[in-house]
Amino acid sequence: MCELNNFDEYYRIAEELVLYAGKIIEDGINSRKNIKSKGIDWDLVTEYDRKIEDKLIKQLLIQFPSHKFIGEETVAKEGCLPQLTNDPTWIIDPIDGTTNFVHRFPHTCISLALLVNKKVEIGIIYNPLMGQFFSARRHCGAFLNGKSIKTSDMRDISQSLVAMEPWLAKDPQYLASVYSRMHALVQGTHGIRSLGTAALTLCYVAMGAVEAYHIEGIDAWDVAAGKLIIEEAGGVVIDTDGGELDLMTPKVIAACNQQIAQQLVDLIKKADCEILHKNLN
Ligand code: IPD
Ligand code: CA
């Protein structure tokens, strides 16, 4: 049941702040940016990522001084991932799809989630460039620009459109497995898509634009808000091995329903086995 409680106030303030942060993305998209890499040359950050994260944390702290924060850029600066506790915790990705933002590819967003007792209670993902404001509160449904959204009712992976991201193949350790999984998806589905923003792609599962999404090597801030938005739209988000998702080290299969999720788990397992056999022979 959707209860009226403190979450109304948390949601109201979060929505206001995310809309404001959207203006920073709009201002920045066509501006000259100070682009840096975070250790690996293709993991980019700009002054806009930091500006948005600082603004969100500062304003949320004024309203909720006892709340905790896990923000992508703060973690990058401090070099360590804080432990998730039962305390109210805001998980922030100030710009998800920073590479898109740098290249002016208009799929980029702010992702903000509130967790209490380690459960996501509020999820907001906003792409100001496409005017898409996705939101969810636990047990209250999922919305795009205030209108209720639902996942696709497809039950057959071979008839599905599936999103995945091959960038992990840049690391030689994962190259064979990424290409094998990609090959299995190309052969076993209607088609694959790759957007370069995990948070928004999760929303595309929620709104029924793709049936499923698979990604690994990402972080809690890429997934927290989108997980709730998908679940509230009728879908599921599980671990690649078919078990429960660990939000702090996510290996993601997001799907419109359990059947598609399971078929994707099986397809990936088969692809991984094929590499193993090739390596043994
Ligand atoms: C990235 C995006 C991308 C995913 C990367 C993330 P960022 O987030 O979500 O889709 O494949 O792993 O790091 O760096 O743009 O916030
Ligand atoms: Ca980011």
Polypeptide structure, described:
Belongs to the inositol monophosphatase superfamily. Pathway: Polyol metabolism; myo-inositol biosynthesis; myo-inositol from D-glucose 6-phosphate: step 2/2. Mg(2+) 2 binds at residue 93. This is Inositol-1-monophosphatase. Its EC number is 3.1.3.25. The longest helix is centred in the N-terminal third of the chain and has 24 residues, at 6-29. This protein is globular. Helix content is 41%, strand content 23%. It has 8 helices and 14 strands. The protein has helices at 6-29, 47-63, 72-78, 98-103, 172-188, 198-206, 220-232, 258-280, and strands at residues 35-37, 44-46, 68-71, 89-96, 109-116, 119-127, 132-137, 142-144, 147-148, 161-164, 191-193, 212-215, 236-239, 252-255. The strands form 3 sheets. The chain has a 7-stranded mixed sheet, sandwiched between helices. The chain is of the alpha+beta class. The mean pLDDT is 94. α6 runs parallel beside α7 (220-232). The chain has 2 domains: 4-148, 2-Layer Sandwich (Fructose-1,6-Bisphosphatase, Chain A, domain 1); 157-280, D-Maltodextrin-Binding Protein, domain 2, CATH 3.40.190.
Question: Layout of SSEs?
Answer:
Layout: H1 6-29, E1 35-37, E2 44-46, H2 47-63, E3 68-71, H3 72-78, E4 89-96, H4 98-103, E5 109-116, E6 119-127, E7 132-137, E8 142-144, E9 147-148, E10 161-164, H5 172-188, E11 191-193, H6 198-206, E12 212-215, H7 220-232, E13 236-239, E14 252-255, H8 258-280
Parallel strand pairs: 3-4, 10-11, 10-12
Antiparallel strand pairs: 1-2, 4-5, 5-6, 6-7, 7-8, 8-9, 12-14, 13-14
Bound molecules: D-MYO-inositol-1-phosphate and calcium ion.
